[in-house]
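Dear support,

We are seeing what looks like truncated structure output for some complexes. This example has two components. We would appreciate it if you could run it in full and send us the complete token output so we can diff it against ours.
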Amino acid sequence: MKLLEERIRTDGRIYPGNILKVDGFLNHQIDVTLMDRIGEAFYKKYKDCGITKVLTIEASGIAIAYAAARCFGVPLLFAKKSQSLNLGNDLYVAKVHSFTYKKDYQVILSKRYLSSEDRVLIVDDFLATGNAMLGLTDLCKTAGASVAGIGICIEKAFQSGGKELRDMGFSVTSLAMIDHMTDDGDIVFRPTEEP
Amino acid sequence: MKLLEERIRTDGRIYPGNILKVDGFLNHQIDVTLMDRIGEAFYKKYKDCGITKVLTIEASGIAIAYAAARCFGVPLLFAKKSQSLNLGNDLYVAKVHSFTYKKDYQVILSKRYLSSEDRVLIVDDFLATGNAMLGLTDLCKTAGASVAGIGICIEKAFQSGGKELRDMGFSVTSLAMIDHMTDDGDIVFRPTEEP
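Here is the complete output from our reference environment:
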């Protein structure tokens, strides 16, 4: 998606260790106009798949899921990252390892809102090691829900998550795929289909 | 806002201790159509106030802020709840006490995205003790940004937060104000102006 690639080049910041900061438009301050275009791109790709829910994980995924859910006309559902005192015990639970924070955490989802009748589009801002996405696909599997696709804004294609998910048979659509980043700020994108 | 009051009566669940669960449409699974109406309500109220940013706090506020920011045509900005390894050190920080989780936490915001030129609409799902909202107004004060208003979906008017914020001079707009809840599931709403 050229619009997103250009925005990453313009407003993204690269730090040593393959860290790309896009907090000016994607996951801290959010450009809702860009996000609406991202939601439309996922809609175009999966509009004939009978999507009943758009699922993401707090917090950065919520705006993306909102933009997509609006297009599909279905509810957005976000998994939470730890046991909430107010959520009750009737939960689906999966374990996720975060490389960013160097610890394990649980993703949880109320059993009320996901069932074997659901056909799910999972979305998130980044795909790198793929652990968060594996956690969400685990939650869907436990619920008996089918995963129609995984929509990602920025895939770090030099990390293993995308390959692993595709090898498992998931349809992964990444709007921008980074093949390579250098510490002096250069980004090489892998060509993607324009949605 | 009748639409929201009716939805709370239909799909909200009351538990002992004045706990109201609205996770079927507002803060776990999210009804984006309802949320769009909520965003429009805040827009109607504050459209002539020169809003430049819609500010909220992760995670439940993000969908509400998205809906509002779309109407205003301005960026959404969400404060994070703890020191993120990837956020950098150039941060505004305020302390918040959570009664729900019975602990203090920090709300943080990158200095890049809020300045004295900003006129802010703060939004959130619930207002009870008001501590989270006080944290966000503190962040704005530190940044030199002015707070044009605070938009809340559900105010527990029997708790002190709303009164405290109004006494401080903030314009607080709550779309549903709960005067009283009983353990057997009855809710008494305080009349509010229809947006």
